[in-house]
Amino acid sequence: MAGGEGPLSAPLRALLRAANALLQQRRYRAALAVIKGFRNGAVYGAKIRAPHALVMTFLFKSGSLREKLKAIAQATYAHSRNLAYFVFTYKGLMAVQSRLQGKKIPFHAFLAACIGGWLVFGENNPINSQIIMYLLSRILFGLSRLAVEKGYIPQPKQDPFPLVAALVWGTVLWLFEYHRETLQPSLQSSMTYLYEDSEVWHDLSDFLLYNKRTDSK
Protein backbone atom coordinates (compact mmCIF):
# COMPACT_ATOMS: atom_id res chain seq x y z
CA MET A 1 0.00 0.00 0.00
CA ALA A 2 1.43 3.40 -0.98
CA GLY A 3 1.99 5.73 1.94
CA GLY A 4 0.34 8.76 0.26
CA GLU A 5 -2.80 6.94 -0.87
CA GLY A 6 -5.76 7.00 1.51
CA PRO A 7 -9.30 5.57 1.18
CA LEU A 8 -10.68 9.01 0.15
CA SER A 9 -8.09 9.87 -2.47
CA ALA A 10 -9.78 8.06 -5.36
CA PRO A 11 -13.30 9.44 -4.65
CA LEU A 12 -11.80 12.87 -4.14
CA ARG A 13 -10.01 12.74 -7.49
CA ALA A 14 -13.25 11.62 -9.13
CA LEU A 15 -15.11 14.52 -7.51
CA LEU A 16 -12.51 17.01 -8.74
CA ARG A 17 -12.73 15.62 -12.27
CA ALA A 18 -16.54 15.91 -12.18
CA ALA A 19 -16.33 19.48 -10.88
CA ASN A 20 -13.83 20.48 -13.59
CA ALA A 21 -16.03 18.86 -16.24
CA LEU A 22 -19.02 20.83 -14.95
CA LEU A 23 -17.05 24.08 -15.17
CA GLN A 24 -16.45 23.42 -18.88
CA GLN A 25 -20.17 23.06 -19.67
CA ARG A 26 -21.30 26.05 -21.73
CA ARG A 27 -24.93 25.76 -20.71
CA TYR A 28 -24.00 26.47 -17.09
CA ARG A 29 -21.63 29.32 -17.90
CA ALA A 30 -24.01 32.17 -16.93
CA ALA A 31 -24.89 30.60 -13.58
CA LEU A 32 -21.26 29.78 -12.82
CA ALA A 33 -20.25 33.36 -13.72
CA VAL A 34 -22.74 34.62 -11.12
CA ILE A 35 -21.19 32.37 -8.47
CA LYS A 36 -17.64 33.39 -9.33
CA GLY A 37 -18.76 37.03 -9.38
CA PHE A 38 -19.95 36.59 -5.79
CA ARG A 39 -16.55 35.12 -4.89
CA ASN A 40 -14.60 37.90 -6.61
CA GLY A 41 -16.78 40.58 -5.02
CA ALA A 42 -16.13 39.19 -1.54
CA VAL A 43 -12.37 38.90 -2.07
CA TYR A 44 -11.99 42.31 -3.72
CA GLY A 45 -14.10 44.02 -1.05
CA ALA A 46 -11.90 42.55 1.69
CA LYS A 47 -8.69 43.53 -0.13
CA ILE A 48 -9.86 47.11 -0.57
CA ARG A 49 -11.43 47.70 2.84
CA ALA A 50 -9.00 45.92 5.21
CA PRO A 51 -5.94 48.18 4.64
CA HIS A 52 -8.11 51.33 4.50
CA ALA A 53 -9.89 50.42 7.74
CA LEU A 54 -6.58 49.52 9.39
CA VAL A 55 -5.00 52.89 8.60
CA MET A 56 -8.06 55.02 9.39
CA THR A 57 -8.82 53.18 12.63
CA PHE A 58 -5.31 53.41 14.08
CA LEU A 59 -4.85 57.00 12.91
CA PHE A 60 -8.11 58.56 14.02
CA LYS A 61 -10.07 56.28 16.37
CA SER A 62 -9.56 55.91 20.09
CA GLY A 63 -10.22 52.79 22.15
CA SER A 64 -8.53 49.57 23.10
CA LEU A 65 -6.66 47.36 20.65
CA ARG A 66 -9.53 44.85 20.85
CA GLU A 67 -12.09 47.54 19.96
CA LYS A 68 -9.97 48.76 17.04
CA LEU A 69 -9.49 45.25 15.65
CA LYS A 70 -13.23 44.61 15.97
CA ALA A 71 -14.01 47.82 14.07
CA ILE A 72 -11.58 46.84 11.30
CA ALA A 73 -13.12 43.37 11.03
CA GLN A 74 -16.66 44.77 10.93
CA ALA A 75 -15.83 47.32 8.24
CA THR A 76 -14.00 44.72 6.15
CA TYR A 77 -16.85 42.23 6.45
CA ALA A 78 -19.50 44.85 5.53
CA HIS A 79 -17.61 45.99 2.42
CA SER A 80 -16.83 42.43 1.33
CA ARG A 81 -20.42 41.24 1.88
CA ASN A 82 -22.02 44.18 0.09
CA LEU A 83 -19.77 43.94 -2.93
CA ALA A 84 -20.33 40.18 -3.16
CA TYR A 85 -24.12 40.61 -2.97
CA PHE A 86 -24.03 43.39 -5.55
CA VAL A 87 -21.96 41.44 -8.09
CA PHE A 88 -24.19 38.39 -7.55
CA THR A 89 -27.35 40.47 -8.10
CA TYR A 90 -25.97 42.37 -11.09
CA LYS A 91 -24.66 39.35 -12.95
CA GLY A 92 -27.80 37.36 -12.15
CA LEU A 93 -30.06 40.08 -13.53
CA MET A 94 -27.85 40.49 -16.58
CA ALA A 95 -28.11 36.77 -17.31
CA VAL A 96 -31.91 36.80 -16.88
CA GLN A 97 -32.39 39.82 -19.17
CA SER A 98 -30.08 38.40 -21.82
CA ARG A 99 -31.94 35.08 -21.75
CA LEU A 100 -35.34 36.76 -21.99
CA GLN A 101 -34.38 39.02 -24.91
CA GLY A 102 -31.94 36.68 -26.59
CA LYS A 103 -29.12 39.22 -26.55
CA LYS A 104 -27.36 41.83 -24.41
CA ILE A 105 -28.21 45.50 -24.84
CA PRO A 106 -26.70 48.53 -23.02
CA PHE A 107 -29.86 49.20 -20.99
CA HIS A 108 -29.54 45.79 -19.34
CA ALA A 109 -26.39 46.90 -17.51
CA PHE A 110 -28.00 50.14 -16.31
CA LEU A 111 -31.19 48.45 -15.07
CA ALA A 112 -29.40 45.54 -13.37
CA ALA A 113 -26.96 47.88 -11.61
CA CYS A 114 -29.76 50.24 -10.53
CA ILE A 115 -31.65 47.38 -8.91
CA GLY A 116 -28.49 46.02 -7.30
CA GLY A 117 -27.52 49.47 -6.05
CA TRP A 118 -30.96 50.02 -4.52
CA LEU A 119 -31.06 46.61 -2.82
CA VAL A 120 -27.46 46.34 -1.63
CA PHE A 121 -26.16 49.90 -1.25
CA GLY A 122 -29.42 51.72 -0.53
CA GLU A 123 -28.83 52.00 3.21
CA ASN A 124 -27.16 55.27 4.16
CA ASN A 125 -24.22 54.16 6.30
CA PRO A 126 -20.49 55.08 6.35
CA ILE A 127 -19.34 52.11 4.25
CA ASN A 128 -21.95 52.59 1.52
CA SER A 129 -21.45 56.35 1.58
CA GLN A 130 -17.72 56.00 0.91
CA ILE A 131 -18.31 53.57 -1.96
CA ILE A 132 -20.93 55.80 -3.59
CA MET A 133 -18.73 58.89 -3.35
CA TYR A 134 -15.79 56.94 -4.76
CA LEU A 135 -17.91 55.92 -7.74
CA LEU A 136 -19.48 59.35 -8.18
CA SER A 137 -16.13 61.08 -8.71
CA ARG A 138 -15.16 58.55 -11.36
CA ILE A 139 -18.55 58.79 -13.04
CA LEU A 140 -18.15 62.55 -13.42
CA PHE A 141 -14.73 62.11 -15.03
CA GLY A 142 -16.04 59.31 -17.25
CA LEU A 143 -19.10 61.25 -18.42
CA SER A 144 -16.94 64.30 -19.16
CA ARG A 145 -14.63 62.21 -21.36
CA LEU A 146 -17.59 60.52 -23.04
CA ALA A 147 -19.18 63.90 -23.80
CA VAL A 148 -15.99 65.04 -25.54
CA GLU A 149 -15.65 61.72 -27.37
CA LYS A 150 -19.23 61.91 -28.67
CA GLY A 151 -18.86 65.56 -29.66
CA TYR A 152 -21.43 66.90 -27.18
CA ILE A 153 -18.83 69.34 -25.86
CA PRO A 154 -15.75 70.57 -27.75
CA GLN A 155 -12.29 69.15 -27.10
CA PRO A 156 -10.55 71.55 -24.67
CA LYS A 157 -7.63 73.42 -26.16
CA GLN A 158 -5.73 73.07 -22.89
CA ASP A 159 -5.74 70.35 -20.24
CA PRO A 160 -8.62 71.24 -17.89
CA PHE A 161 -7.22 69.19 -15.01
CA PRO A 162 -5.40 72.09 -13.25
CA LEU A 163 -8.67 74.06 -13.15
CA VAL A 164 -10.58 71.03 -11.86
CA ALA A 165 -7.95 70.47 -9.15
CA ALA A 166 -8.14 74.12 -8.10
CA LEU A 167 -11.95 74.09 -7.89
CA VAL A 168 -12.08 70.77 -6.02
CA TRP A 169 -9.57 71.84 -3.38
CA GLY A 170 -11.04 75.34 -3.09
CA THR A 171 -14.53 73.94 -2.56
CA VAL A 172 -13.61 71.20 -0.09
CA LEU A 173 -11.55 73.53 2.14
CA TRP A 174 -14.32 76.13 2.07
CA LEU A 175 -16.79 73.47 3.17
CA PHE A 176 -14.40 72.27 5.88
CA GLU A 177 -13.85 75.75 7.27
CA TYR A 178 -17.45 76.99 7.18
CA HIS A 179 -19.84 74.03 6.63
CA ARG A 180 -17.95 71.12 8.14
CA GLU A 181 -21.05 69.11 9.00
CA THR A 182 -21.75 68.57 5.29
CA LEU A 183 -18.57 66.52 4.83
CA GLN A 184 -18.21 62.82 5.51
CA PRO A 185 -16.87 62.04 9.03
CA SER A 186 -13.68 60.33 7.80
CA LEU A 187 -12.88 63.35 5.60
CA GLN A 188 -13.53 65.66 8.54
CA SER A 189 -11.10 63.60 10.64
CA SER A 190 -8.41 63.73 7.96
CA MET A 191 -8.75 67.48 7.50
CA THR A 192 -8.83 68.15 11.23
CA TYR A 193 -5.55 66.25 11.54
CA LEU A 194 -3.97 68.20 8.66
CA TYR A 195 -5.28 71.73 9.11
CA GLU A 196 -6.28 72.14 12.76
CA ASP A 197 -4.09 69.80 14.78
CA SER A 198 -1.07 71.34 13.05
CA GLU A 199 -1.81 74.60 14.91
CA VAL A 200 -1.59 73.06 18.39
CA TRP A 201 1.59 72.07 20.27
CA HIS A 202 3.14 72.45 23.70
CA ASP A 203 6.73 71.34 23.31
CA LEU A 204 9.02 69.45 20.94
CA SER A 205 7.29 66.12 21.68
CA ASP A 206 3.94 67.10 20.18
CA PHE A 207 5.52 69.39 17.61
CA LEU A 208 7.61 66.76 15.82
CA LEU A 209 7.15 63.34 17.43
CA TYR A 210 3.42 63.17 18.16
CA ASN A 211 0.31 64.91 16.95
CA LYS A 212 -1.19 65.35 20.43
CA ARG A 213 0.10 64.99 23.95
CA THR A 214 -1.11 61.90 25.73
CA ASP A 215 -0.89 63.33 29.27
CA SER A 216 -3.70 65.30 30.87
CA LYS A 217 -1.74 68.51 31.29
3D architecture notes:
The structure is a single chain. The protein has 8 helices and no strands. Helix 2 (29-60) runs antiparallel to helix 3. The protein has 3 domains: 27-122, no CATH class; 123-155; 158-200, no CATH class. With 217 residues, the protein is an all-alpha fold. It has helices at residues 9-23, 29-60, 65-101, 106-121, 126-150, 161-178, 185-196, 205-209. The mean pLDDT is 89.
**Span of the ends, CA to CA:** 75 Å
Mean pLDDT: 89
Shape: flat
Helix and strand run: HHHHHHHH
Structural class: mainly alpha
The tally of beta strands, per DSSP, is: 0
SS field, number of helical segments: 8
Outline of this structure?
It comes from Tyrannus savana (Fork-tailed flycatcher). This protein is mostly helical and 217 residues long.
Topology:
Elements: H1 9-23, H2 29-60, H3 65-101, H4 106-121, H5 126-150, H6 161-178, H7 185-196, H8 205-209
Helix pairs in contact: 2-3, 3-4
